[in-house]
Structures are given as structure tokens and as C-alpha cells.
Amino acid sequence: MSRTETIVTLSVICLAMAVTLPTTAVASDEETDSGKSFLSDLPIEKHGFYEMRGGYRLQNDKYEKDMSIMENRFQLDLFSYLDWGDFKFKGDFIGDLVTEQGHFDLREINIFARPLDFMDVKVGRQILTWGTGDLVFINDMFPKDWQSFFIGRDTEYLKAPSDAAKISLFSDRVNIDIVYTPKFDPDRFINGQRISYWNQNLFRLAGQDAIVHTNRPDRWFRDSEFAARLYKNIKNYELALYGYHGYWKSPAGQDVTMSQALFPDLNVYGASARGAVGKGIGNLEIGYYESADDRSGNNPFINNSEMRYLAGYTQEIGRDFTMGLQYYVEQMLNFTRYRRNRMSGPSRDQYRHLITLRLTKLLMNQNLRCSLFTYYSPSDKDVYMRPNINYKVNDNMAIEFGSNIFFGDYPNTFFGQFRKNTNVYTGLRYSF
Amino acid sequence: MKLLWKLTFVLGFSLPIFAAEEPNSTGQIPDVQTIVSKANIVAYYQGDDGKTTAKMVITNKQKQKREREFNILRKDMEDGGDQKYFVYFQNPPDVRKMAYMVHKHADPKKDDDRWLYLPALSLVRRIAAGDKRTSFVGSDFLYEDVSGRSLEEDTHELIETTDEFFIVKNTPKQPDNVEFNYYNVSIDRKTFVPMMMEFYDKDNKLYRTIESTKVEIIQDYPTVVKSVVSDLKTGSKTEMEFNNVKYNIGLGDIFTERYLQRPPREAIR
To answer: B167: domain CATH number?
Structure first.
């Protein structure tokens, strides 16, 4: 079967499932009431959505297709429970016309239990998040999907799943979360497949002509990650300490001989605070990134250690109208050694400053949401804007329009490198 | 049309009445502060805690309907004082398993603390204190209708006493903060349940009503189990129905991030 046929087939399957499943769900609910078998005793909640999404680049990008996103997606979300625990399955069937592939993205399959009064456990594939930033992450070292973020998928896809065990312990003094990931889960980073990027080796923009190949730590139980959070709420000021032992989540080094990108060892130590400030909510977060394979900063092929700082403030500035402002700084440590040892070509600054602004307005009985999220870096002189309009036609159907807009003065900066990827997209989602 | 009243009572559920105690049979008319305080307790503080399943149907002028379904858990720190509650959404599908946590402060100078849990991102977000007179989940109920308007925000005047109702007129102390000029509440003389609220705009024209359409005695607490808000200006209305109301279920200190992400099972199912 050719690729295109596979996709068409997959799309048809998705559509068929989308059409038949809601009815099946209703039917099985009725069965649960009258049936006697074990399975019908097990309550199963069936939900999900069917979505069509398409988008194009607004300019020619010689390394990528004009089509930035074109996919059918069927998400199936199953939930069930026994006395001792909850079961969750969430998976996406995708027919993707950009990669000309059909695939299945298993988002979640896990068991949750409360074995003790003071303990929660969740084991399996799951989405994990912590920290105080809004689309800026310091101590959240769980995998992100930057590709989905930039091509205009729903924001939920920025979080990629982890295969992990999370244990939470609660007490009056302090609460603790410990996450163990037996095999390193990297970001779904920009590798050139769908988004063109600055390639430091080629000294130019690149894309499908230079897909990033990585040497990824992938041994079970040996290349593992640990993340922990200690937190406490004092008079509704939320304080937290964080620790992480693992790897840079996106490539942060290279093996020159093998021409492979690397995920060097990384430890992160951080803290955050969040609470009411004046009429709004303020947050502070800090993190020390210890690049454990190059603590001295002498190795030009591995990222130096960094300090990261974030301060944010959110306030309602009108009826159903909120504004969020953040200031974020990345500080490269051992900068003089970096300067001394670096290879030729554009270099990084010691400080990267970033300002974000979120504006969200709800209209038409909160059925229409207009939002704009903007990243602006005065040091990199680049900008990334995410305008989005979402309208809930009824309780099941939503349509949306949005854009990912990049510009910058230099071709190698964080957002500036993506300027050929500026795109617009639209989506239609039926949820059940 | 009968009378009008004061006191917000929307969260019918939280509206248990503090026992139909002292049914005022002596014929004596209590003073207005006593009336509004009792009605406040009845509307929002029945029992020490409570739970319910709420169903909302929002019908706009074009007769298009939207539905909301959610579970509420509430615990009072003190009658007439601070409260904590959870709202766990069941429907529509796009907000399923989303949850709100509110630590409500009775002191009008202190903003409520609010959190939102977004399950798809597994994210707990802190929400900035907002204008309390904005729509609750896109319905005709306002946040303040659901969580209660502090008695200290208005001056209260008993304008009429009928066989059935005390009618209290409530005038905001800070009229610039609200869209109404005043509102009247008709409070049942026996149960102290607010049966009707009528809001008047700056031209003294009636533009919004909240009516308790069904009251049941649940565990000795008079409880509004059906209410309807009508927006006379937009032609929109929202009906709210409370099912599975239970009081004094013995909720512990569960109003934390832990249970925001996943409700205590016994309290919900």
C-alpha cells in the first residue's frame, strides 16, 4: 500500500470511529445498567474528539513544504476504575498529510491509586507538569513537543507524555512529588522535519536537507531521570523547591566525529513562589542548570551551565479580559571560557532576556475566546507571536483560527531562526 | 408579582437553610440585619459542608441551548464566614475533568483565592481575582450569585412584609463597582430561603431576576433545588438544578492541590 493510501485509509478509520463511537458509548452505558458480565460491571467512560486541522506557511521556505499542518486526528479517551485504583487510556490516531504517514500517538496509559491516606501513586505513560511559568519552563523538566507548538496544534500538545512513576506524599509540614522515569524521555525537539532551523555546523538555515540525528541515552533503568518537588502552601502563597537529575531535554551538545547531536547530563536545582500580589497573581521562579558533562565550561561542544530567572504577573484588566506579563532571563555561566573556546560563527550572548505578554478576552457568553501570546527578546532581537481565535459553535463543536508568527534580526537566535516557518492554521473539533 | 428581596442565593445547593429554626411564629418581625443574616446562612452555609451535582441549561434568545454539568463540594470554615469549595466539571466534553478550587473570603476587602486545573496539560493554574459580576461558565449566573455577595457590600432595608415574605431592598455601598442600582429579595418568612431576587438598573428598570422555583427539605435543611436566572435585556435565561444534595458529609481538609487534580472518590461518586 502506498503512503498516501495508508493515510487515506487511516483517515477513513478515524472518521468511522468518530462517527460510531459516541453511539457505541451510549449503547454500552445502557448495558452497564442491565448487564451481568464482569466487563459490564467495570464502568467505562468513553470520550474524545475528532479534529481536522490545516495550515500553510505564509512565505516560501526552501527547506520545508508549504503545508505546515494538514491532519485528521481522532482522540479516544477511556477511563475506568476499581475500588483500589483508576485506569486511564488516551490515544490519538493521526492521518498526517505533511509527513504522508498515519500514526498512533499513545498519550496516556496509566494506573492511579491512593494506597495510603498520605500517598498518591501514578504509574505509566502520563502528562506531567509543574512550575509557575506560562509557556516558559525552568523547573518543569518533563518532555515538551516544540514541533506541535510551532505548527499550530492545540496547546495541550506542547506537553509530550512521560513513561514514569510518580509518587506523591502529603503531610502538614510539606508535600513531596517524586517522579522516576526509567528511560530518558527527550523533548520532541525541532529536528528539521517540519520546521526549518539554524544549523550551526552548516552556518545556515536547514530543514529536511539536514535532519538532526541524535545519540540519545536509551537504556532502560540506566539512562533514567529523577525529578522531585517539595512544596507547601503558606497562607495561599505556594512555595516550592525542585531538583532534577537527568539530561538536557533537547540536544545541547554534539559529537563532532559522529556528527550527532547529544543530550549531555544535566542537573537542575530550583525554587518558586506564587501568590496574590495586589489585584493579581505574582510568581517568581529560579533554576540552576548544572551541565554535568561540562561543569567547567571548557568544552565548546557541550552547553555551559546556566542560571534561569523568571518573574511574572497576571491580572484581570477588564471584564473577561486578562493580561499576563513575564520577564525571563537565561544567564550562561563560565561565559569567558565559552568565549575563549568557542568555534567560529555566530555566538551566544551571556544573557538572553525574554519578555512575554498574554492577552485573553472572552466574548459572546464566553463562547468566543481571542488570545494573543507574544514572546519578545530584546537581546536576541526576535519575536514569536501566537494569536488565536476559538469559537464554541455548540457544546460539542469548536472552530479555531490561529497563527504562529516569527521574526528576528538574526538567523541564529531562538525564535529568529524560525522566521521562514510563519504560518496560519484553522481547525475544527468535535468533542464527545 | 409579589415581592422582592435581597441576598444572593444562587448556589441553591449551598443554600441549605440553617434549619427552619424558629419559624417566626410569634408574629414578631425581626430586624433587617437578622433577616439578611439568616437568609445568607440559608442560601450559602447550610450544614458544615455539602455536595451536589448541578446541571445548568443556558437558553439564549434564539432558543439555542448549552448545558453544563458539574459537581460541587463545599466546606464552611465558619457560618457566614470563609468557605472553600471545588467545582468539578463533567460536561460539556471539552471541559470534562476541569476543576476549580476557591478559597472564599468573607471579608470583602480580601480577594478570593482561585485555582484552575486543566487535565490535558496536567496543569494547576492560579487565577487572578476577577470581577465577581462576570458570568459563571458562560451562563446567566454571575460568580457572585454562585459564591454569595458579602452582606457588607450593601445597605439593607426591609421595605415590605407580606404573609409569606420579607422584602428587603439592597443598595450597594459602592455603586460604581456593580451594574445594578439596587436589588430586592423576597425572603420566605418561615424558611428564610430567598425566593426571588430582582435587579434594577441605573434607570430603576427591572432587568434581571433570579427565582427559586423548587425548594425541598433535605436533611432538615430547606434547599433550593431548582432556580432560574432571567436576563430581561438579552432574553437569555439559565436554569439550574441540584441533584444528589447531601449535607454534613464530614469533608476534611481536602481543599488542596491534591484533590483539585483528582477529587476524593467517595465525595463525588
So the answer is: 2.50.20.10
Q: How far is it, in rounded angstroms, from Cα A320 to Cα A262?
A: 45
- Window 101-160 of A: residues touching B by CB (8 A cutoff) are 112, 120, 126-129, 155-156, 158-159
| Enclosing domain of residue B149 | 12-268
Q: What is the pTM of this model?
A: 0.89
Contact B138/A233, CB-based, under 8 Å? no
Count of domains forming chain A = 1
Interface of A with B in 316-345 (CB under 8 A): 316, 319-320, 322
Number of domains in chain B: 1
Beta bridge partners of B229: B210, B238
Q: Is A151 helix (H, G, I), strand (E, B) or coil?
A: helix
Does B218 map to a domain? yes
CB of A401 less than 8 A from some CB of B: no
Q: CA A300 to CA A377: how far, in whole Å?
A: 24
CA B207, chain centre distance (Å)? 19
Cross-chain residue pair B128–A319, CB shorter than 8 Å = no
CATH of the domain at A338: 2.40.160.100
Query: Domain for residue A29, yes or no?
Result: no
User: How far apart are alpha carbons A114 and A112 in whole angstroms?
Assistant: 7
What residue in A sits closest to B65 (Cα-Cα)?
Answer: A394
Q: Please report, in angstroms and rounded to a whole number, the separation of the first and last CA atoms in chain B.
A: 41
Residue A432 with chain B: CB contacts under 8 Å:
93
Interchain CB contact of A392 with B (< 8 Å): yes
For residues B6 and B197, is the Cβ–Cβ distance under 8 A? yes
- Asked if residue B184 lies in contact with residue B159, where contact means CB atoms within 8 angstroms, the answer is yes
In a domain, A180, yes or no: yes
Which domain range does residue A85 map to? 47-431
Tell me which residue of B125, B262, B99, B121 sits closest to A127, measured CA to CA: B121
- Write phi, then psi, for A396 (nearest 5 degrees): -110, -25
Give which of A298, A216, A220 is closest to A249, Cα–Cα: A216
- Is residue A306 in some structural domain? yes
Asked, for residue A7, whether it belongs to a domain, the answer is no
Tens place of pLDDT per residue across chain A (432 aa)? 455 555 555 555 545 554 444 444 444 444 444 445 556 678 899 999 999 999 999 999 999 999 999 999 999 999 999 989 999 999 999 999 999 999 999 999 999 999 999 999 999 999 999 999 999 999 999 999 999 999 999 999 999 999 999 999 999 999 999 999 999 999 999 999 999 999 988 999 999 999 999 999 999 999 999 999 999 999 999 999 999 999 999 999 998 887 899 999 999 999 999 999 999 999 999 999 999 999 999 999 999 999 999 999 999 999 999 999 999 999 999 999 998 888 777 788 999 999 999 999 999 999 999 999 999 999 999 999 999 999 999 999 999 999 999 999 999 999 999 999 999 999 999 999
Q: What burial letters (b/e) apply to A56-84, b meaning 16+ CB within 10 Å? A: ebbeebebbeeebbbbbbbbbbbbebeee
The bridge status of strand A260-262 relative to strand A214-215 is parallel
